[in-house]
Amino acid sequence: MTNEMGISVADCDAGKKQWYVMRDLKPRNAKDPAYKLIDGFGLRYFTPMKWVVSESKNGKKERKYVPIVQDLLFVYETRAVLDPIVDSTKHLQYRFKRGGGRQALMTVADAEMERFINAVNSDNAPLIYTPSELTPDMIGREIIVNGGPMDGVRGRLLKMRGSRKRRLIVELKGFFVAAVEVNPDYVQLV
Description:
The protein is of the alpha+beta class. It has helices spanning 34-40, 79-88, 110-121, and strands spanning 18-24, 44-46, 49-55, 61-67, 72-77, 92-94, 107-108, 127-129, 139-145, 154-158, 167-172, 176-181, 187-189.
């Protein structure tokens, strides 16, 4: 399979697939952000999204589904497939571990990424925080979910004043913390 840039995706299947952390250097209002480029190649990717209301050029308000962090993207693929795409695209780059040099690419463990994706996708309106936004007084009791789409997930509840909803904190270490609603019938205190 070859896309409009002439890069063959099918020919590059050597190596181990893993979740690579990527960055998109295009401006926030670009028509073709990196996640759309990756989607055009048919590759699996994830970027937490949210709905925002913005004003268009003609003054009308419109709802858009945009990434929560514009320049952050997770792609599940091999280096053999991703390297040609990154080399031919000026605005898509790998993220590197701090202090690790150019060979220390940031990756996320498969199980951790799948758990985060499943949690975020199980809620219509997950609350997404950066790790620095979550304070110790927001963290509640430890629970385990027994049943439903998040069966077996263990974590802590999010404490929110005046809220009747129970939200489980699911962390993607170093990137995001998601608070997703869980059915109280499935919550068991640890």
